[in-house]
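Preliminary data (for renewal application), aspartic acid complex.
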Amino acid sequence: MDLDTDLEMAHLPVVSVLGLGGTIAMASSGASGEASQDSSTPGVQPVLEAGALVAALPRLREVARVRARSLRVVPSASLGFADVLGCLEAARVEAADTAAGVVVTQGTDTLEECAYLLDLLWDRDEPLVITGAMRHPEQPGADGPANLLAAVTVAVARSARGRGVLVVMDDDVHSARHVTKRHSSSTGAFVSVDTGPVGRVHEGTAVFLSALPRQAPLPQPVPGADPRVALLEATLGDDGELLRLVAQGGFDGVVVAAFGVGHVATATAELIGDLTGRVPVILASRTGAGGTSRSTYGFIGSERDLLARGMISAGFLDPRKARILLWALLAAGADDARIRATFAAHGGHPDLRDRVDH
Ligand code: ASP
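Predicted structure:
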């Protein structure tokens, strides 16, 4: 979609909207305007280009001169690392070409993972803002237009510069480092459990309420690198068989979503040392909030035991984010020392990092 050339808008900043698909871009194939909840109909699918999302929202013209293009039009479950890296490159090109900020619209299912990978690699000051929708455009109370307007509002805000990648949903502004989808269908699905949102769009303005320290961008992935990182969750009655299968699977790294502050069953613990000798194995908590511990419990399968067997603590990173960080490090060719140091820096709660590192 071409940039609006209306002279009255000449003073407004330019924002680029890059579309990847998702519920915000879905419609029923018949496009009758009324989506049915009837399971005999085919249901909605991603079909709307980013330009159509922008054209359907005239209010955007009060905030920015928007140019839009779609990179993919897919459900976010079908996005891959290459799509996110392609999006990163496209966002860089847009920012270098006069955009004050860039907005990415995508499905919410993998939004937290895509946003975190972008955040690890985004090396510019312009805001890169990710948004989507929980209700598709044919549902009453569809949230896509409000989310897109709020995201563009944040993208043009000078106070959003230098904050890395931000996720805007339901008028909350989250840091990509902390946000997670915690509800399958609510419009308030996105939360930053450990920190709360960093800001809010209020009466048409982005208001930042807190500032989280920004990490330096990671080294860029080696072109074509696509390490395979498994994520495996500890469950009741675990006999270690799943880890044994993963160990045979030829993965380049493994993340274990462990119980509580970082615990697994004895049978699994006894297999860990074998795996840590070959590939990085990350210890994260499956609970969804809080960090893994280092020094509290001492039984076989406890965090002390697992760290002594060579696992690397994810700290306050949840298992999915830990997997993204490990992927990015492996894709950049990081060695064991670099992987450990980066997890210590990125996994530490800002206020605890000094204690955790010593
Ligand atoms: N339900 C998802 C969404 O909110 C579908 C997807 O992730 O593509 O967009």
